[in-house]
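Reviewer 2 asked us to include a model.

Predict the structure of this chain.
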Amino acid sequence: GAPNVSTATAVREQHGHDESMHPCAPPDAVVWPQAVGQVQELAALCHRCRVPMVPFGTGTGLEGGVNAVQGGVCFDLSRMDAITELSLEDFSVTVEPGVTRKALNKHLRGTGLWFPVGTVGIRGAMGLGLAALWLLGMPVGLGML
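Predicted model (structure tokens):
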């Protein structure tokens, strides 16, 4: 519905660029799914209709990965921000894609663990942060303080 979908120019332009030098390439629409089932349904619909999908985390990437150069639908995953499981024993955490490194480290405060900036997973997905790791099905590892 309306609070979870936008075709407003300002919203589309906000989601059509990151911190790179590439010019803005806005999507045709922006959606804010709030559950895995919604992501699956939206992805299936886009696939059936041959509409490009562009995942959006925080827009801080440096490569232009959020630019919708062929239009399409931008999946803003920021509302999926739950930390669902934390294992202090094996240094792992399960998060939804909207969880930022800052939010994760706030949650970890007092445990002796932290999520560093320079991990291999995060370096490979700077523009999307934890959202990209989630979409790719990659585990999130933690470090000790």
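Helices lie at 9-14, 36-49, 101-108, 120-123, 130-135. The chain is about 25% helix and 20% strand. We have added this to the supplementary material.
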